[in-house]
Amino acid sequence: MIEPAPNRVKDLGLLSQRDNELFPYPSSPEEWMSFALSVEQVAHFKEHGYLKGVRILNDRQIGQLGEELGEMVDPNHTGKEFFYEYHSNESENSEEVLFHALGAWRVRPAFHDLLWNPAFLMPAYQLLGSDFRLFHDQLFSKPAKHGGVVAWHQDYSYWTWTTPMSHLTCWIGLDDATTENGCMYYVPGSHNWGLLDKKPIAGDMDAIRDSLTSEQVKQFDNKIPVEVKRGEASFHHPLLMHGSYENRSERRRRATLINVFADGVVSNRKDGGTHAPGAKGYPSIPAGEAMGGTYYPLLFEAQRELRELTSQLPLIN
Fold it and tell me: Residue 186 in contact with residue 222, Cβ under 8 Å?
């Protein structure tokens, strides 16, 4: 265990289990079932590639996460060295601001323990259909009036350094997300398009449009806003086309994301080539080896937590 230096926080990524009671953990398989999605919700995800409006956080949890996010937005906060990526402003437009960072679970305790929140773990297991590990978490913050865009993209286009494609994203609102303050938009059914070329995530909002077929453009033009209340989550498939427009409202828009992959996914990492992370901060696993170890902890094992009740759950596959 690495001991923290003076005026420095320890690396919470070295702790592969929850560390406090902010997210109470079920004590029985029956308690786990109270967090389960319905047959209809799982079917909706399978058909459309997303599911929204899943309650993940209560007011106390939102408050603690918001307080810690307020600390981490300051570029001089303690623990910044543990982030995989940290962008005070990733926007390519000088008139807009998009705070984006990956690795908060290593930096602050509430973000660390959020990964073991049963209200997240059970739906994630059902929608992925497998035991799973943490890939990484993300923070996004758009300030009032000048919040920047997140351009249209597919998550897996940035993650081809892992294989096979067996991933899931959970987007959690720390504020109400609306069309006015820059909520996400989804293109329903676009998870069936296959993998497209990736574009800069904070660049031209509609850059991906030039890569679409005429039929895909028709679907793209039927995109829908994903408005959620603070504390609610949306889950989406790694190939679902999504993005979010600028915040021109008087209200900020903050969110945290948890990205996971099925246990057994392996590294496809080729440093310096196409299949490489976008930054050097990601813990490295040699190509061909299973993604695992300290910084890719196993978050959920169905047999351990649910035992004989596993067969009663609606799953994606």
Answer: no
Q: Which domains does the chain have, with CATH numbers?
A: 28-254+263-312 (2.60.120.620)
Which residues, at least 6 apart from 25, have a Cβ–Cβ distance to it below 8 Å?
18, 116, 118
DSSP string, 76-142: T-TTGGG-SEEES---SSTT-B-EEEE-GGGT-HHHHHHTT-HHHHHHHHHHHTS-EEEEEEEEEEE
Token pair 């004590």 is found at: 27
Global pTM reads 0.94
pLDDT at res. 8: 56
pLDDT single digits (tens) 1-54: 334 444 457 999 999 999 999 999 999 999 999 999 999 999 999 999 999 999
Tens of pLDDT, residue by residue over 251-290, are 999 999 999 999 999 999 988 778 889 888 899 999 999 9
Tokens representing residue 232 in the block? 């609610």
Cβ–Cβ under 8 Å, residues 119 and 232: no
Q: What's the pLDDT at 3? A: 42
Maximum CA pair distance of the chain?
A: 59
